[in-house]
Amino acid sequence: MPANVSPYLLLCLTNLFWSLNFIIGKLLAGVIPTSTLSFLRWLPPLIFFLFLYRRDLYEHRHFFKKHLLLVLVLGATGYSLNSICVYEAVRFTTTINTSFINAFNPVLIALAGFIMYRYPVTRRQGLGFLLSLVGVLFIIFKGDIARILDLQVNIGDLFMVGSITLWAVHTIIYKNRASQLPGKAIFPLMMLAGLIVTFPLALAECLADNWAWTSQVHARHLVGILALNIFPSVLAYMFWNQALTRIPANQVAIFQYLIPVYTTLISVTFLDEHLRAFHLLGGGMIFAGVFLVTNGGTVLQKLFRRGAG
């Protein structure tokens, strides 16, 4: 990639590509079963990165044999189950909802770090967690007290919470157990492990439906799958890591606020979704909470060196 390309432009594009995962996933998940869609998303990128990093993989092959279980867990939480949950989420709820709930991720990472490895959490971060949690609940219940009292929840919102929870666990385990592993080599191996976990789920879906979804796939769906392969799965990863080599991680993290902005603009324009007052209020609380958490200590700044799903 040319060195004169602005890292800030790369980050704007990276988060645009990640927002496309929600949009394209929404358009495809109604036709292609979710586990199958996740498998099709990651398979071509896996082939690409296996070829790209083949020398690193060969050089460290003995090293990774000692960490097979760790790689499998990282693959399951970061490149399989979390991805499936995203596509289940957009089947039932709006992409605007999913993108705002996704913004809660940094706070959840801090909480997971505290629960799993007792990473220190300051009072400021604790306040940020509570504020963001209220924002997420505000969006899930659409700002309606009656819904809260009756526990009327859209299952899609719960799937999205499940997705970011899995990603938070993935991030903390990676930071604590795998951050010293060869970076270029471990990425395609985690992707491979994710596909190993996803394959039986996808096969079960297809057999249960007698492969009926294949008769509903048209050229536009194939283009959508190709877009998932290229933009959120390959280019976003490469742009993100290129930007990280040139600007501080805490500056990189700020650009993730663009995901709900991009998603909202695209969803309102092309999916006929609507931005509601509860999105603005809940999103405001989430962003304020994330600011308190990510600026309340150094651990989160280090964790932001890893990309989003």
Describe what you observe in this structure:
By secondary structure, this protein is mainly α. It has one domain. The chain has helices at residues 7-29, 34-52, 54-59, 61-65, 68-79, 81-92, 95-102, 105-117, 123-140, 145-150, 155-178, 183-208, 219-244, 249-254, 258-270, 277-294, 299-303. It is globular, with a radius of gyration of 19 Å. It starts with 6 loop residues before the first helix and ends in a 6-residue tail after the last helix.
Write the layout of secondary structure elements.
Elements (H helix, E strand, L loop, with lengths): L6 H23 L4 H19 L1 H6 L1 H5 L2 H12 L1 H12 L2 H8 L2 H13 L5 H18 L4 H6 L4 H24 L4 H26 L10 H26 L4 H6 L3 H13 L6 H18 L4 H5 L6
Helix pairs in contact: 1-6, 1-13, 1-15, 2-6, 2-12, 2-13, 5-11, 5-12, 6-11, 7-11, 7-15, 7-16, 8-9, 8-11, 9-16
* Beta strand count: 0
Strand content: under 5%
How helical, in percent, are the residues? over 70%
Mean pLDDT: 86
The class by helix and strand makeup works out as mainly alpha
Round the Cα radius of gyration to an integer and report it: 19 Å
Shape by Cα distribution? globular
- Which consecutive residue ranges, at least 5 long each, have pLDDT under 50? none
| Topology as a string of helices (H) and strands (E) | HHHHHHHHHHHHHHHHH
Query: How is the main sheet built?
Result: none
Summarize the structure in short.
With about 300 residues, the chain is mostly helical. It is built from 17 helices and no strands.
